[in-house]
Design goal:
Elements lengths: L26 H28 L3 H8 L7 H4 L2 H20 L6 H23 L6 H20 L3 H8 L25 H4 L2 H6 L18 H20 L5 E4 L3 E7 L3 E10 L3 H10 L4 H4 L3 E9 L4 E8 L10 E11 L3 E8 L12 E2 L1 E2 L2 E9 L2 E8 L1 E2 L6 H27 L1
Parallel strand pairs: 6-8
Antiparallel strand pairs: 1-2, 2-3, 3-11, 4-5, 5-6, 6-7, 7-10, 9-12, 10-11
Helix pairs in contact: 1-2, 1-4, 1-6, 4-5, 5-6
């Protein structure tokens, strides 16, 4: 049994990605709702300050401001702008917080009504006097300004980002119900998923027993816990894909800035191979990666911690015509397996020197998590969250371009290798 299996899996079904989770609002909607509350508070406070400072008899001025029966209410009072702000706040709260609409019409209508009301109001109100108080100007200007800021805060990409998850086909019909309710008994060992040929030839990583453990700087349990946390990060990111930014179509590429690890890239591709075959290439035969992906010069397992957790060493090739030199990475890697879904996770860990005769800059990988999901007998969905820090004083734009190029080339090379190997 996999050592990191729990009684209640934190796996999140793939078909739930294409819509927000019930009861949750994305950050753009929360920001808009908070600002609408600020809109009302700002206009109301400015109006109160205006009433209190206009005259020493502020109670009489207050009654005059809210006296709707006065025939010249529209000409002499600014309380109608407070009422307008109240309705604007209430309408947007109902539409985007309660009804959770994903349409620009409510905020467009509220801004349009505010514009049509404020401009005639300002013209008539200030034409009745030669000069106005600063707070009077502030109330009118702020009422119009915050309405347009609400239009700006409305994120028009939210709906398109939600639909991004449907790109390249849905898998909800292909995934069985047990993907929603996994248990510890559903997990199998990685050795059970290796092919017969791999077992006979002794090529499976899980059957190797002699590794160098002298480089460990912490206890094995610490490394295993680190690997499990990396898997949890990947599962959390997978549940938040609807709010990520789309940067590419072929393959589908999304990006997001994580508060802890910085920029994270996500790629999705469907490969015409069986789940076991894709798992074999990416895990059991990972040391052959430099043969089909030239941007990786070396990949090897250097330490075995448990049945499904090991320490790996990888060396990247120089990129951008040598501007970015080779980087070495020492990661702890783990795998979590089910009949129709396999999760492979890794993250950089402290480790001693890996002697190969050449000194390289050691990069630092954040949680790198790959989800392999069987769609049918001959196709598998591949999802990969990639986060890394190349270290060194490199321009951010060049690093971003290099990482995107690495992921795109990885998908293309992997696809070519799978077609050549499995037809």
């Amino acid at each position: 049994m996999a050592t990191n299996a729990t009684s209640e899996s934190t796996y999140i079904a793939y078909e739930l990605i294409d819509k927000p989770f019930p009861g949750l609002l994305n950050k753009h909607r929360r920001r808009l709702i908070i600002f609408t509350c600020f809109d009302f508070c700002l206009i109301f406070l400015l109006w109160i300050l205006f009433v209190m400072t206009k005259s020493i008899h502020w109670k009489e001025e207050l009654m005059r401001q809210i006296n709707f029966t006065n025939g010249r209410f529209f000409y002499n009072s600014l309380f109608d702008l407070v009422i307008l702000s109240t309705f604007r706040c209430g309408a947007l709260m109902i539409c985007y917080a309660c009804l959770k609409l994903n349409h620009w019409m409510p905020v467009a209508v509220s801004t349009g009504v505010t514009t049509l009301f404020d401009i005639p109001k300002a013209t008539i109100y200030f034409s009745q006097r030669h000069a106005g108080y600063p707070l009077e100007f502030a109330i009118v200007v702020c009422s119009l300004l915050v309405a347009y800021i609400e239009v700006y805060l409305y994120d028009s990409k939210t709906r398109s980002l939600i639909s991004v998850c449907n790109f390249q086909g849905r898998t909800s019909d292909a995934m069985p119900e047990r993907c929603h309710e996994q248990s510890a008994s559903a997990y199998i060992t990685a050795a059970e998923l290796t092919t017969d040929n791999e077992s006979d030839n002794g090529a499976s990583f899980l059957q190797k027993s002699k590794y160098d453990t002298t480089g460990l700087l912490e206890s094995p349990e610490w490394y295993i816990e680190k690997a499990e946390r990396a898997l949890n990060h990947g599962k959390y990111w997978r549940s938040q894909l609807c709010s990520w930014k789309k940067v590419g179509d072929s393959p589908l590429l999304l990006t997001h800035v994580d508060q802890l690890y910085g920029k994270v890239l996500y790629v999705k591709q469907i490969f015409p191979v069986q789940l076991k075959q894709l798992f074999s290439v990416l895990y059991s035969q990972a040391e052959t990666c430099p043969m089909w992906h030239k941007e990786v010069l070396k990949y090897k397992v250097i330490c075995k911690l448990s049945e499904n957790v090991d320490i790996t060493y990888s060396l990247s090739a120089p990129s951008l015509r040598g501007y970015i030199a080779s980087r070495e990475f020492v990661d702890v890697r783990t795998v979590e397996l089910d009949d129709d879904c396999i999760t492979i996770g890794s993250i950089s860990v402290p480790y001693g020197t890996v002697a190969d005769g050449i000194s390289h800059i050691r990069g630092e990988s954040g949680p790198n998590v790959a989800f392999l999901t069987a769609i049918d007998e001959n196709s598998t969905l591949f999802e990969w969250f990639f986060n890394t820090n190349l270290k060194g004083n490199l321009p951010r734009s060049l690093v971003q371009r290099s990482l995107v190029s690495f992921m795109v080339n990885f998908i293309k090379n992997l696809d070519n290798y799978l077609k050549a190997t499995y037809g």
